[in-house]
Design goal:
Enzyme class: transferase
Order of helices and strands: EEHEEEHHEEHHHHEEEEH
Structural class: alpha+beta
Number of domains: 2
Organism: Nymphaea colorata
Number of strands: 11
Catalytic activity: 1D-myo-inositol 1,4,5-trisphosphate + 2 ATP = 1D-myo-inositol 1,3,4,5,6-pentakisphosphate + 2 ADP + 2 H(+); 1D-myo-inositol 1,3,4,6-tetrakisphosphate + ATP = 1D-myo-inositol 1,3,4,5,6-pentakisphosphate + ADP + H(+)
Radius of gyration: 20 Å
EC number: 2.7.1.140, 2.7.1.151
Pfam families: IPK
CATH class of the largest domain: Alpha Beta
Amino acid sequence: MLLKAPPHQVAGHQAAEGNLGPLVDGAGRFFKPLQDHDRGSKEVGFYQSFWSNSQLPPNVYRFFPSFYGTQLLEASDGSGPREHLVINDVVSSLYRPSVIDVKIGSRTWYPGASDEYVDKCVEKDRTSTSLKLGFRISGLQVYQTEELGLWKPGRRWVKAILSIDQVRSVLRAFVSSNASSSSPDCTHAPAIFGGPTGVLAQLLELKQWFERQTFYHFYSTSVLLMYGRDEADGSRPVAASVKLVDFAHVVDGEGVIDHNFLGGLCSLIKFVEDILESVDGSVAWTSKLGSAAD
């Protein structure tokens, strides 16, 4: 089995230059090395609990990667055999994928975490948009056009996303054919964010579950927003998809709604709704101008 670093990973630890990170097999499987300090075993425990929980509504499963257990593999950093979580590679089926990783929650540290870990998370939450918006953008890539190619800003650029206007601009860029431009055109917003199967509809469906579910509380979990291109027509976006990933810090909900995650999810939904509304408004306004000119 030939393994390699995921070509479309936009956030998290990456298996590059001898570092420990996830691997993919090119056939739809994603191998994530189990994290130290029980984080890896906790993530495996979540997947086992989630996929064996018969009380979950059937529609919820599609928002989570499929789980295939664990496998002992040679670690990407050359440190020897290491246990890996095996899940489906949620990006592998997309042609020329555009992906954005949004870490949800105004608080990313979990109950029972060490003081050192809490201090680290509090600092990140305070110095990013997590505390004020309930989410922060952790990474992204956007396939623009044949001429412009792939736009994938570096970590330093992503960490500088600190204002509401910057977040709005990045989310607009995500659905634009000129993402790297200072004035994103939002060309793909109606097709990707809108419609009965678009990102907004999927986020609202996920929100309905979080308004009721009390099984789990998700800390430092990300929502991936993704879409690909039609292989016959590279300019046409297709297959909008929403997935949750990263579950090393999920804890028992103990019968209480996860307001931390729900609040951040609602905040993200509002941004997507506003972008769709602004695009629809500009289209209507332009149409009126055209009628007047005629």
